[in-house]
Amino acid sequence: MTRRTLYDAVTRSRAAELYDEGYGVRSIADLIHVPYAAVRQWIDTYRSVGIEGLMVMGHKYNRYSFETKVAAARAVVDEGMPKAEAMAKFGIASMTPLKNWMKAYREGGPEALRPKPKGRPKGSASPPKKPTREQELERRVQKPEAENAYLKKSMALKAERRSRTARRQRP
Fold first, then answer.
1. 35 CB-side CA count, 13 A
2. Does 42 share its domain with 78?
3. Where is this region: Disordered (predicted)?
4. What CATH number is associated with residue 44?
5. Which of 48, 98, 109, 151 could form a disulfide with 88, with the two C-beta atoms 3.0–4.6 Å apart?
6. Domain count of the chain?
């Protein structure tokens, strides 16, 4: 269960209206009694994708092309563009994917942002190998050896039980 408080579309809409009226993020947070970090995220989303993106926030996952991911990450990491400006320029609805792309871009370059194949790879299970002649002969020898060891152990346990019961009956 998440500890984050979810706010309704009316609250987010009111924050956007106050922003359009000229209020700052901290003032909006105080006026509508919402944490500053949440309002800041809403305003960044509002500035980048508009009121429609703000209203569907938290309900819909956007998919971005490889080119968009690379361009946005490169703009912020290499060119020093502010994150909010990059979100607006490339139409990114949330700060989280942009931060993830930036991290991947720093660690592995543009190739780290390529889409990864989903699911289990086809043909990943190798077919069973046919045993060699030596392996087959070894298996054939080991089977009777294991059977003999089992029988010997069984006979020893039975003999031990017999000796215990024989001692108890005589007194």
1. 7
2. no
3. 106-171
4. 1.10.10
5. 48
6. 3
Same domain, 2 and 22: yes
Burial of 164 (0-12, 13-18, 19+ CB in 10 A): exposed
- How confident is the model over 60-77, as a mean pLDDT? 87
pTM of the model: 0.49
Which spans in 94-132 are helix H? Answer: 95-108
| CA nearest to 95, candidates 73, 80, 114, 110 | 73
Gap between the Cα atoms of 72 and 91, Å rounded: 10
Domain that residue 75 falls in: 62-115
Q: What is the CA radius of gyration of the chain?
A: 34
Is residue 55 situated within a structural domain? Answer: yes
Q: Residue by residue, what is the 3-state secondary structure of 35-103? A: CHHHHHHHHHHHHHHHHHHHHCCCCCCCCCCHHHHHHHHHHHHCCCCCHHHHHHHHCCCCHHHHHHHHH
Which pLDDT score is estimated for 168?
61
Mean pLDDT within 60-89: 87
Specify if 107 maps to a domain: yes
Contact predicate 75/49, CB 8 Å? no
CA distances from 166 to 153, 160, 162, 163 (A): 20, 10, 6, 5
